[in-house]
Amino acid sequence: MFKPLEIFVGLRYTRAKRRNHFISFISFISIAGIALGVTALITVLSVMNGFEKELRTRILGVASHMVVGSAANGMDNWQTLPSLLERYPQIIGQAPFIRAEGMLTAGAGVSGALIRGISPELEPLVSTLDKEMKIGVLSDLKSGGFNIILGHELARRLGVRVGEKVTLVTPQASVTPVGIMPRLKRFTVVGIFEAGMHEYDSALALVHLDDAAKLFLKPGQVSGLRLKLTDMFDAPYLTQLMVQDLPRGYVITDWTRQHVNFFRAVKTEKMVMFIILTLIVMVAAFNVVSTLVMVVTDKKADIAILRTLGASPGHIMRIFIVQGVVIGAFGTLLGLLGGVSLASNVEKIVPAIERILDRKFLSPDVYYISDLPSEILFADVALTGVIAFSISLLATLYPAWQASRTQPAEALRYE
User: Fold this and answer.
1) Is the separation of the CB atoms in 318 and 306 below 8 Å?
2) Measuring CA to CA, which of 119, 181, 233, 325 is 20 to 30 A from 143?
3) Are strands 204-208 and 109-118 parallel, antiparallel or unpaired?
4) What's the pTM?
C-alpha cells in the first residue's frame, strides 16, 4: 500500500464489491442528492442576482444615483453648484430638475401624476429615459412650448396619444376676480416612454424645466441636481463625503436611501431562499448518514479484524470519515459544475422550453421582467460549496464515531 491505511480502506468501502452493491447504490444516490441541491441553490441565487441587477438598472434608469437638493422649497443660485461638484471625480453627469405633483385630465380620463421638469439636453447624462422612448424624443420638449411626455401606462389611463392635449392641474391656486381658482395649463403630448417599471410608467410625466418653473411658480429655481456616478455603489460613501464638504443648506440623498425598503426586501427574499434550498442539501446529507450506518453494520467483522491487527479507534473513525468526505466532495463538485453551467445558460434554456411548450412563464402583461436574467457571483458559488461540503463532513461524524466504538470480541462472536 502506497496510501495511508485510512484512505486506502475508505476508498475501497466507497466502491461496490461483491454483496454490497446496494450500499454503493445508496452512495451514488447521496452524491446525486448533494449535487442536485447545490445545483438548485446556485441556479436560484444566480437568477435572483439577475433579477436584482435588472430591477436596479431599470429603477436607476429613471431615478438617479444621487440627488443634491435644498432644505428650502426651492434651490436658488443652483448654477454655482455644478462647479462645486467638479471636485468629485466619481460624478460623471449632472442635470437640474423640478419635482412636483399634479393632476392630469383628458376628456373623461383623470389621473394623479408626478411631474418632473427636466433639461432635455442634460437629462441623458443622468438617466436612460432617452433610450426608453417608444414615441418621440426628449428634444421634443421645447422651452415655452408646454409639451409633455407621458409614461405609457399613464397615457393609456388618460386615453391620449401623441399630438393630443392634456390639462395639468397644480396644487397651487391663483387669485382671480371670481375667487381663488386652481392653476391649470393645457399641454400637448409629444412623446411616450416605457421604463419597464410600473411605478414610473403609470405616474411620471416629463415637461421642460422652464415650463415647470413657470407653472409651479419657481422662477430661476430648481428642486435640485440629479447626479450619475461611475460606480453606483460609491453613492453611500460619496454622500457622507459631500455632507461634510458642501456648505450647509444642501440635502443629499442617494439611491440606497430612496429605495432602501425595496432592495432590503429583495435581499431578505434571497436570504430566505438560500436557507430553504440549503435544507435540500441537508436532506441529501441524511443519505450520507444512512449510507455510512449501513456500511458500518456491514463491515463490523472487517472493523474487528482491523482492530485485532492494531488499528486504533482513531484509524477506524478516519476510515469512515474518508468515505463520507469522498461522497461530499464528489457531490459538491458535480453540483458546482452543474449549477454554474445551468445558471450560465438559463437565459437560453428557458426561452427554448417556452417555445416547446408554447407558453410564456413570465407574461409581460403581469411581470415587470418577462425574461429570466442570471448573474453568477463567485461569493455565492464559494459559499454554497463550503456549506455543502461542511454539511456532508458533519454527517459522517456520528457513523464514524459509532464504528470506532466497535468491540472486536462482540463483532467476531458469531463469525
Assistant:
1) no
2) 181
3) parallel
4) 0.71
